[in-house]
Specification:
The complex is a heterodimer of chains A (267) and B (262).
Chain A (H helix, E strand, L loop, with lengths): L1 H19 L2 H10 L2 H15 L10 H17 L4 H11 L2 H5 L6 H30 L7 H27 L7 H16 L10 H7 L4 H12 L5 H37 L1
Chain B lengths: L1 H18 L5 H24 L12 H35 L2 H6 L4 H7 L7 H16 L5 H27 L8 H11 L11 H10 L7 H8 L4 H27 L7
Helix pairs in contact in B: 2-3, 2-6, 3-6, 3-7, 3-10, 7-10, 7-11
The chains are: A mainly alpha (267), B mainly alpha (262).
């Protein structure tokens, strides 16, 4: 157990050192993910122009709160592992990593976790600035923040695993990164990046509750906005954990099959 | 002039031959195009899906769809013509292969801007054109409006080219330029919606600071006949000014180029 802990610590510390090198880029990456912010501005001015100053019970300030929350949660959810796997598999960079007595997945996971630590202070500063400009008001309940953070952690792990699986498709096809774009669209749509899920057609909502997406993006955002309670968070955590197991197994199967194929090409 | 046209034909042939070798990538490109237009379409679909919503920023559904079409078309233009060329500038400066480009007896800016194509993303252009035509067919469009829109859209493409070239030219001083174009992509994402859909301060930013409004909103306004005369003049002026400035900037950058080894 102690050796496992030491491994994890060394892994994290080295990845953290690497990620701090990219601190300027991290801020640029944060600013280039603008979909939530664009949607926020459009909905805010839609609500301001609507009769009664609100749409489905959201006034401009509540739209600001919701979309800034999705933006912040989305920032914790950023995963680029599919791009790296695509490159590693195609260029054969994966081979030396296979010699280590550890699944190469943990290296990537540690990189992403370390990047989150670099990202977090800048994220807080930007959210505070945007909230001040747009007039957003967040929940004051500390439990909501804890629950949102827990869901974000589960959500990030789920997203990491499915992106990893999509990235592994590079063993068979050259267009694995395009699959990733399609999956991202589903995640953004059902997660609630375009609007709160209640704004979608009834049948979309009925499908969405069975997917992991609303619980990793929309639900934590609603918690931060004070529009969801801890019981919702608990249900969301359960569904996400179930999906986590599914993605874990899926990743394992695709990885084993891929390795067999990779060995055949290299030999 | 004919020499340059012949060169464009040669470049196109060479890059086509190279790309069509990877046929499997075609499926991926189509998927990516569909996903990108999906993002733009979902954005307005959810907005107009609300009960009682008939317009966004004073634009009806088909008018807003026109903007989505032009946005997709522009994204296609970027990924087919602009990005494949501009992303290579930084690499050429870093490795010193820019030397060869500068030594050739043709204009270097012309060469670096036309040498490569990403044929696979032609699907973006097709989807964009299809959406634009579909949206226009539901609106009352005059031949004069179409002509004005086409001219203003050419100005829009010049503006997009100039912004990308200016950002990529900074490679002569900085090693990496990918981040700057990433940032522009983020702002350009706002062009999915008519600029009037945004709060007033943001509208000003999208018109005067980063001229995103001229790229999709202004040509769409020309097509629907709701364009103010001031903007008809402003768009070509902005395009001409940007073109002159980026040309001067490019020449200055080339002047200060000292190859990779020195």
């Amino acid at each position: 157990m102690t050796s496992l802990w030491r491994k994890a610590r060394v892994l994290f510390v080295t990845r953290f050192a690497e990620m701090t090198e990219y601190r300027a880029e991290v801020i640029i990456w944060m600013l280039s993910g603008t979909l939530s912010l664009v949607m926020m501005l459009v909905w805010m001015s839609q609500a301001a122009a609507a009769p009664g100053g609100e749409i489905r019970g959201y006034n401009p300030s509540e739209f600001a709160t919701y979309f800034l929350s999705t933006w912040a949660v989305g920032q914790l959810m950023v995963v680029w592992v599919a791009w790296e796997l695509d490159m590693e598999i195609r260029q054969g960079l994966l081979s030396p990593k296979l010699l280590r007595p550890m699944d190469p997945m943990w290296l990537h996971y540690a990189s992403h976790a370390a990047e989150r630590v670099v990202r977090f202070p800048a994220l807080l500063a930007l959210v505070a600035l945007f909230a001040w400009v747009a007039g957003a008001r967040f929940s004051t309940d500390p439990a909501a923040y804890l629950a949102a953070f827990g869901l974000a952690l589960l959500g990030f792990s789920a997203r990491f695993l499915w992106e990893y699986t999509v990235g592994l498709l590079a063993f068979w096809t050259e267009s694995s990164t395009s699959f990733q774009e399609v999956v991202w669209l589903v995640y953004a749509a059902l997660g609630g990046m375009f609007a709160p899920l209640a704004f979608y057609p009834e049948w979309v909502q009925r499908v969405a509750v069975w997917t992991p997406f609303p619980y990793m993006l929309g639900l934590p955002a609603q918690l931060l906005a004070g529009k969801a309670d801890l019981a919702d968070a608990g249900r969301g955590a359960l569904v996400l954990s179930g999906w986590l197991v599914v993605f874990w197994l899926l990743r394992l199967i695709v990885w084993r099959m891929g390795l067999r194929k990779y060995g055949a090409v290299g030999a | 002039m004919t020499r340059y046209l012949r060169l464009v034909r040669l470049f196109t042939g060479a890059t086509l031959a190279a790309q069509l070798e990877y046929r499997a990538n075609f499926l991926g490109a189509i998927l990516a195009s569909l996903a990108e237009s999906g993002v733009a379409l979902l954005g307005i679909a959810v907005l107009f899906g609300q009960p009682g919503t008939t317009e966004v920023g004073g634009w009806s559904f088909h008018q807003a769809l026109l903007v989505v079409g032009l946005f997709t078309l522009t994204e296609g233009f970027i990924s087919v013509f602009i990005q494949p060329n501009m992303s290579k500038i930084a690499e050429a400066v870093r490795t010193g292969s820019m030397d060869f480009t500068l030594l050739k007896p043709i204009d270097a800016q012309f060469n670096i801007s036309t040498r490569n194509l990403n044929v696979l993303r032609v699907t973006d252009l097709l989807i964009g054109a299809g959406l634009t035509i579909y949206a226009a067919s539901h609106l009352s469009v005059t031949p004069g409006g179409v002509l004005a829109a086409a001219l203003l859209y050419v100005c829009a493409l010049v503006i997009v080219y100039c912004i990308w070239l200016a950002l990529s030219t900074t490679a002569f001083w900085f090693v990496k330029t990918q981040n700057a174009s990433e940032l522009f992509n983020g702002v350009f994402g706002a062009a999915r919606f008519p600029v009037t859909a945004f709060p007033v301060p943001v509208r000003a930013f999208l018109t005067f600071v980063v001229p995103v409004a001229f790229i999709t909103t202004v040509p769409a306004q020309a097509l629907t006949g709701s364009l103010s005369p001031g903007l008809v003049v402003a768009s070509p002026l902005v395009a001409a000014a940007l073109f002159t400035l980026t040309r001067l900037f490019w020449l200055r950058a080339v002047g200060s180029y000292t190859s990779a080894s020195s």
